[in-house]
Amino acid sequence: MPETHIYKKTPDCRIHLDIHKAPTSESPAPAIFWIHGGALIGGSRDRNEDDTARYTNRGYTVFSIDYRLAPETKLPDIISDVQNALTWVRERGPEVAGIDPDRVATIGHSAGGYLALMTGTFPRPPKALVSFYGYGDLVGSWYSKPDPFYCRQPMVTEKDARKNFSGPPVTRPNERPGGGQFYLYCRQQGIWPNEVGGRDPETDPGFFAPYCPEQNVSDTYPPTMLLHGTDDTDVPYDLSVRMAAALKAGKIEHQLVTIQDGGHGFERGNGQADPDAITTACDGVIDFLDAHV
Description:
The protein is of the alpha/beta class. It is built from eleven helices and eight strands.
């Protein structure tokens, strides 16, 4: 079982992380700072045991974090939570988990992949980043215009979308049900950036600029691995292609791993993930982490 800690207290909630320790590892151990997906609206720090074991069995201690969720909490405070969690890992991790604070990599999936890319813009970034089907841009037409794929699904009314989303801050989706409906409504209306950021990207694009990793690649940005399926209907494959181009322009070491015909989560047309594709991708991630962390 993971070891749970509170890494941040706000007036409204306590925010937790779980530590999954490697069964055997060098001391001090390298660490993975793992960030969940869910469109910044849902998801939680809970980890699939098999997925976690891929890393812990190779000697990595995994820190899996919660953060306050949108739309009750807006983008600046979400990023602040991630920064605070990474600071906690570096400051407390050596004591409570025996890690090396100078050997921390960030991994995230989907919105967690976006947040992983954002950690590369922090004043003290991790040693390496891995983004599974993440994105470096928040305000392109893919998120700020009605999405054709989601508009083919039954339309969600504003009333149904918002009925559970007017309370205090939350860090886990079971604290207020209906996240899927709210996300579907945002994609159908093209208002996800508005709801998550609290600003309109058409009238206030400058607000979003610091929160778009694609626009903020500096010479301190860490080596980065991007993994993305070509048939992703949630986060377009082109988002990782563009992020790779920004990294190349900044002369940052990077890899773009393309999963041919892969959807979001590397699913195929039958809705099932391809186990061979996942195994190959994860083996490549381990090699990448071993080289840089």
